[in-house]
Amino acid sequence: MANTFPRWTNTLPLKLLVCFLFMGAGIAGGVTYYFTQKYTRVGYMPSQPIAFSHKIHAGQLGMDCRYCHSFVEQSGHANVPASSTCWNCHQHVKTNSPQIALIKESVDTGKPLEWVKVHNTPDYAYFNHSVHVTAGVSCVSCHGKINEMPVVFHDQSQSMSWCLDCHLAPEQHLRPMDKITNLNWTAKSEGKDQKEMGQKLKDAWHIEPPVNCAGCHR
Amino acid sequence: MKRVWQHPAEPTTGKRYWRSLGQLTGQETSQKWQDREFQDGAAVMKDEEEQETSRRSFLKLMSASTAMAGLGLASCRRPETYLKPYSKMPEWVVPGKILYYATAMPRSGGGTPMVVHTTEGRPTHLQGNKFHPDSNGGLDSQAQASVLGLYDPDRARAFSNYGKPSSRDDFFTFLNAAKKELAASGGKGFAVLTDEVVSPTRLRLIGELQKKFPAAKVYRYEAFGPANVRAAYTKAFGAGVMPFYRFDKADRIFSLDSDFLGLDRVGGKSVGQFMSGRKAQTSADPMNRLYAVESNYTITGGIADHRMRVPASQTVKVAAKLAALIGAATGDAALSAAAASVKSEGYNPGREDFEVWFKTAADDLIASKGKTIVIAGSNQPEAVQVLAAAINQALGAYGSTIELKQTGLPESQLGTLAELSSQALAGNVQTLLVISDANPVFDAPADLKWPAAQDSIKTVIVHSTRHLTATARKASWMVPATHYLEQWGDTRGFEGTYAVVQPMILPLFGGVSDHELLGALVSNEDTPPFVAPSMAPLPMGTVEDPGPGYKLVRDTFNALVPGASEEVWNNTLRDGFVAKTEYPAATTAFQSGALSLLAALPDAAAPSLTAMEVTFLPCAKIADGRYINSAWLQEAPDPVSKVTWDNAALISVKTAKDLKITLAAVDEADVISVEIGGVTRYFPVLVIPGHADNAVTLTVGYGQLGTGPEGPGRVGQGTGFDAYGLRTSATPYFATGAKVAKLSGSVAVPEGGSKWTDHKEIPAVYPIATTQEHHSMYGRALVREGTQKDWQDDEDFVMEQGTDAHLHGDRAEKTAENAFSLYKPNAGKKEDGTREPLLSDDLHQWGMVIDLNSCTGCTSCLVACQSENNIPVVGKDQVRRGREMHWIRMDRYFATDLDSDAALNNRQVEGHEWEEDEMDDPSMLVEPVGCQHCEAAPCETVCPVNATVHSPDGLNVMVYNRCIGTRYCANNCPFKARRFNFFDYNKRNPLVEKSAGPLSFNNLYAGPLGDRHDTELSKLQKNPNVSVRMRGVIEKCTYCLQRIESARIDARAHARKDKSREQGKYDETLVLAKQDLRIPTNGIKVACQEACPAEAIHFGNLLDKDSDVMKAKGNARNYELLGYLSVRARTTYLARIKNPNPELIKASPREAKKVGQGSKTRPVAVAGSSSHGAASH
Predict the structure, then answer these.
(1) DSSP label at residue B236
(2) What order do you get walking across the sheet with B498-501 strand by strand?
(3) B-chain residues within 8 Å CB-CB of A111?
(4) Can you tell me the mean pLDDT for A65-86?
(5) What's the CA gap between B865 and B888, in Å, rounded?
(6) Can you tell me the distance from the alpha carbon of A196 to that of A22, in angstroms, rounded to the nearest whole number?
(7) Cβ–Cβ contacts within 10 Å for residue B851, how many?
(8) Best exposed site among A55, B160, B219, B1148 by fewest CB in 10 Å?
(9) How many Cβ atoms are within 10 Å of B37's Cβ, its own excluded?
(10) Nearest-5° Cα angle at B943, B937 to B948
(11) Contact A214 B1045 (CB under 8 A)
(12) B16 Cβ partners below 8 Å, 6+ apart?
């Protein structure tokens, strides 16, 4: 009687085992590399030259985001404030702090402060702040509760699929335009359903976020 | 099943359009370019076996590279980057937004008013200032490319003293001492040499200088300029009077060797004015008519309705002929007498219709009396200028179509270079200050012996923005000038309107402006030591010191606008000019005494093969040589010859045959020697059909000596061949009696003192980079034309040409129903028979129309596109391989009527023996082609990775990050509009030659070991809103996607924000119509459209009936390239309309033949296809 299995199948289990070992190692390596915070950047919290606390300024003092990020409604960039903007208040407040001395130095010499970039859009993607904040997307949707962060960290993954999640279903994030910079506001706090309200806003404001390549890549 | 697309056969009758002589005569070299878009490296598999082995080796390589990629993963983590905000927020700056400033580029003849795009303080792009009376908003390529000049790493950057590095303080210490000495002697032995730049402040300071140093003398020099026009008008009308042409008011224009649409700048907006008479919205619209007599084929000749080739030296004879005819008809005795005094007995430029041509042209001019312009080229001698002036006088042009204005300084106050040279050689000049971008050591006429004259001057101070020119290398002091984008200054537009030049950026390399230098010289105080400008903000309440240049300009301005408030000044800076400051009208009348110089003219013998004529022209790319280090201009193909990175001698077909020169040169050009008066120079030669016989056209400026910083700069070194050596002050524009011969072998160039070229030897065949044959699309009536009569006879005549003629029905049917489809014929068809729009955005659908009736082919759109879209330069070697990256390809076609006999006798075009005369008298058409943004784009269906897709607003977009470089899309693009980054052109410098041992290769091939660009400097010019592409991806026209997106975002953001604030409603109760989100009509201008001085490009929203583009699409001349493919291109073209003189057509069979349309063949059966010539299976 002929063999049911050809001879080469004798080594098959071993081959499969080796193959699975390699695959397993690859998957484990990939997961540890790509799925960790360092790669997706969620939780990335570099130390800044000045221990500026958004928690104090935006949270406790209740300053509007747009006092410092003044062009967020006009330009693609939400500008980091010039040293002179800090100096408006800090020439009077906490003038003796060694942290403020760095601002004073920058104002006097013209040398810019070097803030470490937390959120980094790649060169080939063109994100525009103005069109988002004027369409009812709050700062909190992409940056998290900045008003509770003593040190800013990366709150959302900001990957392309994350962008598209919202572009395909914007109603989950839209809110009235006067609540954009109110990071504590939620639909629930006014007893509304986010999805229902979002849908109404989407229809009334003709929100049609681009989902084609040219929307962000040029 | 594989589909094979059978294109309809090319027509065999009617007018034939050909890109090159090689194509016309069926040369293999040209065929190669037609067959293969990408020449080298793109391997074609020979047979099945090779396919199999290739696939195997491909898989091997892929697996190996995947493994390698794994090794490199560790370096993928993102580096830490920094945000550097301003320390003190500058006013008006919004990070991420472009700021626009009005300024002007000072140039010879008249400044060019412009608007500068600056992003965070960096000038990145230029456009014309349409509010200025001397501009219609267009901008020529040389002005466009000047922004690159700002970031030129080889610019003059440092002070030097006898070649040794020096400093600003040292120079001004010297100057302070020198001016005291000069003041003591009253300026004896002091001379100033300037260029033709018209700057009121400079003139004022020169006036002060002459007061302070009474014995000092001022001289003016440019290698090319309106000297002859100025001299003639001084004689005919008085000193300082100059003509300004109003082409928009003229019905008939006659050009006597004037390239007024191209190199002969006669006005700030003359191209636009001329083209306004050719817009032809309907077949009934009147059009102007242009007759051109010229020696070389120029873009003006291409536009002309009737053109005759006449050698430059013989132009005076045909001018006299015209004058005689007009003198006789108008009864102008002085004109007739003057014409008779020109010795031109029996002259004929070799045309049987010569007499009748001029007779009908003259009749036509007389019939339009008062609405004519006769314009003589600025390269033509005084005799032709005064003849043209006399004709204009007889035809009543002055006051109606030509305005006379009293310009600038009378000639008498300024000396010439010849005078300066003789003064210097006589030892009368001890100190010379050269404030000029001209380079007299290189470009002065040989007989002036300028190098020797300059050597005889003790102290020569050269102030220039250019790299170390030959003049600067010999100077005692080299003073780096600031670029005009870095300085305060002023200039006058072409017709005198005062414009302020304001700085966009602090001087990148220090430097001194011309005003600051002259100001220091006339100032009684010592110049204080230099303090580097500080970035630190000033204490509150203090005003930043704008420097001495500002004060000098402000003084001029205050004198010009007496009692001007700060507000008037600020408005001037905003607008860029002061209205109503143009030159005053001249009041003098024509003095016919000026015509007396004609009688003294010797009879210039017609050129012959043994005594040829040589014409010297400034280059369309690098002008007189001053832009030699501009990579954009070097790579922008010459509008007619299509040469890049070099200059070439141009000759006619007949002369080429006589000299035994290869007609159809593509990559390799024969070299000729040109000898005049014992001086010999060598040039690669290209055959331009339509050039005058026995004449050679040479473009100057190339062949500047030196390498690296000691020469024309790293871009310009080693490019081209010198023509200035042949030029003398007696023959500045053309010379006769030249001996021209083809080189039979290479010629060694002597080393040492007499060295005039960087080439060690002159080869008999020179490799040349012309873009003419690249990206060729075969024939098929891509360009279409007709006469006004053709159009009147058949409203849809354009749809009857070329392959569209094969289709049945009227225009609507042709464009929709009966057209062949790459897909199923009824795709997207609705119930009522109309077609569903393939795309979904109901607010915006973008489209473009290019009017071939207005396009001259000047390449200014091409350079504007390069500046806006970060398009890299690839270098001569890569251009030779067909790898230029320009998104706009400027096609040039010559057209000849195929002998009707040939078709009747069934003679094949390919086998047709072309007669010289047939080849030598073609008409010329140009056509810019970029991505056509097809709705059913063939490129999209073949991309394996979906890297090229459609956006809902109708753009064919390219996703660089997805692109893996298969080039399938380029292969499938019927328009050959896609460009592939074979190398990392943006990072690796393609202009460096490397060598390793015996090998010598281009830097690009050194891979990661290659030199990088001066990245920090070149990065400054880049548009931050456009991705800089890297190696291995395809790119192409995006319709300036960045401009569309920013307009779309602005429209949305503004509508929502403004409405909510207006209504006080911030939620769903806000009343907002969808239409409110639409970009305003004509709210976007794309870069090419903005730059076009002829306003030939229309761009806009196809869903907006009021938009320019929809108006243009409604024109009956509108047609699609390759419409029969049914790709539904968004870019369409308006056919060229010629307005020939019907009398001349009747009288001259030759002219009748030239104005024919493209073929109108009826359906022809094509082997293997159905009766429509549709796809076979």
Answers:
(1) H
(2) B489-492, B498-501, B577-578
(3) 87, 535
(4) 91
(5) 8
(6) 49
(7) 25
(8) A55
(9) 20
(10) 60
(11) yes
(12) B24, B779, B895, B896, B897, B898, B909, B1159
* Beta strand B785-787 pairing with B993-996: unpaired
B1114: tokens are: 């409604």
- Tell me the CA distances in angstroms from B955 to A72, B376, B932, B1086, B1101, one per residue in order: 28, 45, 9, 14, 12
**H/E element holding B473?**
helix B470-473
Using a CB-CB cut-off of 8 Å, the residues of chain A touching B843 are none
Q: What is the pLDDT of residue B1164?
A: 35
Per-residue pLDDT at B753: 52
State both tokens at B25: 């005569």
Work out the number of other CB atoms within 10 angstroms of the CB of residue B1018: 20
pLDDT along chain B (1177 residues), means of 10: 52 69 73 70 53 63 60 57 87 88 90 92 92 91 93 87 88 91 88 89 90 90 88 89 93 94 88 92 90 93 92 92 92 89 84 90 93 93 93 92 83 80 90 89 89 90 84 88 92 91 89 91 84 66 77 92 90 92 89 87 88 93 90 93 92 90 82 90 91 93 77 83 90 92 84 66 88 70 82 83 67 60 52 62 91 93 94 91 91 75 43 66 90 90 92 91 92 91 88 80 81 77 91 94 93 91 88 90 93 94 91 90 82 92 88 70 36 34
Q: In what order do the strands lie in the sheet with B217-220?
A: B164-165, B160-161, B477-480, B459-464, B431-435, B190-194, B217-220
Dihedral angle of Cα B705, B711, B715, B720, to the nearest 10 degrees: -10
E strand residue ranges, B32-151 = 82-83, 98-105, 112-119, 122-128
A137-176 as b/e: b if 16+ CB within 10 A: bbbbbbbbebbebeebbbbbebeeeebeebbeebbebbbb
User: 3-class DSSP state for residue B270?
Assistant: helix
DSSP state, residue B332: -
Instruction: Answer whether A75 sits within 8 Å of B97, measured CB to CB.
Output: yes
Backbone φ and ψ for B316, nearest 5 degrees, come out as -60, -35
Q: Check A124 against B1027: CB less than 8 A apart.
A: yes
Contact B82 A206 (CB under 8 A): no
Give CA angle at A77 (A73, A82), nearest 5°: 95
Look at residue B384 in the predicted model and tell me its pLDDT. Answer: 93
Q: Coil, strand, or helix at residue B259?
A: coil
User: Within the 9-68 window of chain A, which residues sit less than 8 Å (CB to CB) from chain B?
Assistant: 33, 38-39, 41, 46
Burial environment of residue A8 by CB neighbours within 10 A (0 to 12, 13 to 18, 19 or more): exposed
Cβ pair A80:B85 closer than 8 A: yes
Check residue B295 and give its pLDDT. Answer: 93
CA separation for the pair B712, A79 (Å, rounded): 42
A115 touches chain B (CB under 8 A): yes
Evaluate the CA torsion angle B546, B550, B551, B552 in order and state its sign.
Answer: positive
Residue found by looking up tokens 């006469």 in the block: B787
How many C-alpha atoms does B714 have within 13 Å on its Cβ side? Answer: 12
Q: What is the DSSP string of B194-205?
A: E-SB--HHHHHH
Residue with tokens 């980054």: B981
For residue B1026, give the chain A residue with the closest CA.
A218
pLDDT of amino acid B1161: 47
Q: Which of residues 305-334 of B touch A (CB under 8 A)?
A: none
What is the predicted pLDDT for the residue at B901? 43
Residues 137 through 166 of chain A touching chain B, CB cutoff 8 Å: none
Alpha carbon distances (Å) from B86 to A48, A112, A114: 17, 6, 10
SS3 B482: coil
Q: Which residues of B touch A200 (CB under 8 A)?
A: 1067-1068
